[in-house]
Amino acid sequence: MIGELSRPATLADLIAAERARFLAEHPRSVGMARAAAGVWRGGVPMHWMGDWACPSPIFAAQGVGAQITDVDGRLYDDFCLGDTPSMFGHGEPSVAAAVADQARRGAGFMLPTASAVIVGKLLAERFGLPLWQAATTASDANRAAIRWARAVTGRPVVLVFDGCYHGMVEDAFVVLKDGAPAMKPGLLGQVQDLTATTRVVPFNDLEALEAALAPGDVAAVLAEPVMTNCGMILPDPGFHEALRRLTREAGTLLVVDETHTISTGPGGYTRAHGLEPDVFVLGKAVAGGVPAAVWGVTAQLSARMDEAAARIGPGQSGIGTTLSGNALAMAAMRAMLSEVMTDAAYARMLAGAERLVAGLRGVVEARGLAWSVVHVGARVELVFADPPPRDAASMRKVLDHGAVEALHLWLINRGVLIAPFHNMMLVSPVTDDAAVDRLVAAVDAFAVAVGEVSI
């Protein structure tokens, strides 16, 4: 076992030492990665699984509650939670029982089940929109919302916010580069210029939003209530009220994607803050890890959708797959909505998040760091800047990839997992205070170690 670092001279030295420690302490994961490399591109079934800061993928053995054990027998406090699908904990008993029971009776029929009626009622009661559809992922749900918005309005353009994340929806892969719209540089195989039909503006910039809506050709604004994928960015006071007013004045639909902000409360950010979307999208957590998503619409929009469908006539709509709304997903969603995503569960999550926020802010203050802590509900972000940026362009300027890599690797080697893509931490109802305190202590030790090296 390799001990703690002995005063590395630079951040690169610190990262190198942490990599060596990881490789020494994870021989089985390293061996499995070598074997997997012969059958899986990049050594993992899905390339995101290789995006962690560690030099070799961690192979999981099991997850129980808010902890994961890997194949080397190492135990981790899990603050990633599958990057949201397992937000309420791994191996949740009521979901496991519902899924096992349904699997024995058939996983999918391309027919509705009795659970579908109950799930629809639970969704309407919880989120306030009366009519729903199911999808397999939030990406699929967002694609459906965009397609319907264009059909209903007869308009070609979708508007997104710079730095947004809406899954693998091509229309959302547009960013601002030097103030001008451009396709994300990492987008593979794109043959059409997405900037022709996607408009992008900075988050929190109401003047830019109003100007972008002014031509009258925007079918829908697709928005996260809080920006969560480029480093967490909170909305300015009054931003959402103005967003709703401006979209209504422009005849533009508002699609709110709550796939990440469902951490806010039982009804998501929408219910907690009184938002009034035309379309509400939710994925990942709604089925407890079983691939599923839902999207709901207002009664008014549903009527317009019927009119659009009648104009177009019968045929393939380009929306949905045979797996959408399958019996297994419905069973999982029923268990989640009725037994897991409860007020009491959220109360525990929010209390744990408040403890984490207070602990991290205590580290920042005690160590005199130019860092900040941002959170929405049970989702917490450590930002290497103070004050926290208000838009993605400002966030990109302060993003220190080396420091992020070092922090993630440091935490992994001390038995803590956070989301691999940025400094996001998610608290579940079964995350105990001791786990929160261990995470805070590990960040504090990292702050000390980084303070002793040359960056």
Notes on the structure:
The structure is a single chain. The chain has 455 residues and is an alpha/beta fold. It has helices at 11-25, 27-36, 93-105, 114-127, 138-153, 206-213, 239-250, 268-273, 299-312, 327-340, 343-367, 392-398, 401-412, 433-451; strands at residues 60-64, 67-70, 75-78, 131-135, 157-161, 174-177, 180-183, 198-201, 218-223, 253-257, 279-282, 293-297, 372-376, 379-383, 416-417, 424-426. It is globular and about 70 Å long.
Using brief descriptors, characterize the structure shown.
7-stranded mixed β-sheet, 455 residues, 4-stranded mixed β-sheet, 16 strands, 14 helices, single chain, alpha/beta, Aspartate Aminotransferase, domain 2, 2 domains
- Please state the average pLDDT score: 95
- Envelope shape: globular
> How much of the residues is beta strand, in percent?
15-25%
Q: Tell me the domain tally.
A: 2
Count of individual beta strands: 16
* CATH C-level category of the largest domain: Alpha Beta
Largest sheet properties: 7 strands, mixed
Radius of gyration: 22 Å
Residues in helices, as a percent range: 40-55%
Report strand order across the widest sheet.
4-12-11-10-9-5-8
